[in-house]
Amino acid sequence: MGRKLNVAIVGATGVVGSIMRRLIAAERGNWGEVRLIASARSAGKLLQVGDETIEVQAIGADVFDGIDIAHFDLPDDVSAEWVPVAAAKGVVVIDKSGYFRMDPDVPLVCREANAEAALHRPKGIIANANCTTLALIPTLAALDEHFGLVSMSVASYQAASGSGKEGLEALYAQVQKLIGADRVGTETGDVRAILGEDFNAPFGAPLALNVVPKVGGWKDDGWTSEELKVRNESRKILGLPDLKVASTCVRVPVAVGHSQVVHATFDREVTVDEARRVLNAAEGVDVVDDPANMVFPMPIDSVGKGGTQVGRIRQSIDFPNSLEFFVVADNLMKGAALNSIETADLVRRELEAAQA
Ligand SMILES: NC(=O)c1ccc[n+]([C@@H]2O[C@H](COP(=O)([O-])OP(=O)(O)OC[C@H]3O[C@@H](n4cnc5c(N)ncnc54)[C@H](OP(=O)(O)O)[C@@H]3O)[C@@H](O)[C@H]2O)c1
């Protein structure tokens, strides 16, 4: 047997980075060194990876020496600068930012749909899709294989942690400030008046006791970047360049767990029984669907879970080729860290086999 590969978590201090540390700890035996990297602000911090205490190193070209696989959990602009540096040193990079996802020479991988794509990476870079798209893919891939997916209309209900540690802390701070305010939310402008303008960041408006129909930055014609990602990244991962997608992304006052209402249309009529049979057998999908007993997917029940949960499955009354369903996934797990770990597993096996 060859040496064990060395792995880095780049952005180890962030909300995704903290889940990465937990998941790497659970498979610690697969790896040689585990290196933790973040900004110069965090250099010298001591963080846990299971029982091990590891000092955080500041990002720089030298920190990638000796690393085989690096998980990048950084903002887009920081990934844009440092991913090519690591890749040029022969590191296989799995990047969770949006920067490289639509590059034709960068595979966008979700193992339930296109595991083989991880093995063809001309730039040494693999991209992880955005959390909203990843929550959908296992269900869509299974249904597409059997019934031929033609189009989908999606409405998301996205958690505050999708905006990183800043988003999560902002939601908690807003909730704290509103606690004790009697009947707040029942008078025009009362939530804004209590919170003040400081609490508009980072969502652009208060999130506590509210929903905000804007996730990501504004793009042409009134779309947001998140809505375009759902369309473009789903097409790329599923290998369906002509898939018709309509998407509206909404932020809700939930800590962790992205939910989505999906109306999906197929080549042929699909019954609920057929859909259930396919989804019960699908990898990465848990069918949680007993509405009469109040059993359906919800974000509070998705936290920390590996798979994606699907429920409220119905055949559309007026569209026999269409299904309605509700999908929930932990945005920090399948939506980010877990998917990256699963992709790294494919690469680790490939690199270990090459050593043998
Ligand atoms: N949150 C989600 O649900 C989710 C889901 C899918 C994908 N993603 C993507 O995953 C990435 C990380 O997201 P997150 O939610 O974990 O963000 P986060 O909580 O804000 O963490 C950001 C991380 O990046 C590091 N960082 C920031 N500026 C840096 C710089 N100039 N040099 C080196 N390190 C720097 C931070 O280190 P310091 O602590 O030292 O500043 C921190 O470790 C983003 O690309 C995001 O789009 C997030």
TrEMBL record:
Reaction equations catalysed: L-aspartate 4-semialdehyde + phosphate + NADP(+) = 4-phospho-L-aspartate + NADPH + H(+)
Record EC number: 1.2.1.11
Active site positions: 131, 258
GO BP of this protein: diaminopimelate biosynthetic process; isoleucine biosynthetic process; lysine biosynthetic process via diaminopimelate; methionine biosynthetic process; threonine biosynthetic process
SMART domains the record matches: Semialdhyde_dh
Ranges in a coiled coil: none
Domain annotation Semialdehyde dehydrogenase NAD-binding: ranges: 6-121
Cross-referenced Pfam families: Semialdhyde_dh, Semialdhyde_dhC
Pathway: Amino-acid biosynthesis; L-lysine biosynthesis via DAP pathway; (S)-tetrahydrodipicolinate from L-aspartate: step 2/4; Amino-acid biosynthesis; L-threonine biosynthesis; L-threonine from L-aspartate: step 2/5; Amino-acid biosynthesis; L-methionine biosynthesis via de novo pathway; L-homoserine from L-aspartate: step 2/3
CDD domains: ASADH_C_bac_euk_like (cd18131)
GO molecular function: aspartate-semialdehyde dehydrogenase activity; NAD binding; NADP binding; protein dimerization activity
UniProt enzyme class: oxidoreductase
Sorted UniProt keywords: Amino-acid biosynthesis, Diaminopimelate biosynthesis, Lysine biosynthesis, Methionine biosynthesis, NADP, Oxidoreductase, Threonine biosynthesis
Assigned protein family: Belongs to the aspartate-semialdehyde dehydrogenase family.
Subunit structure of this chain's protein: Homodimer.
The protein, known as: Aspartate-semialdehyde dehydrogenase
Organism annotation: Glycomyces harbinensis
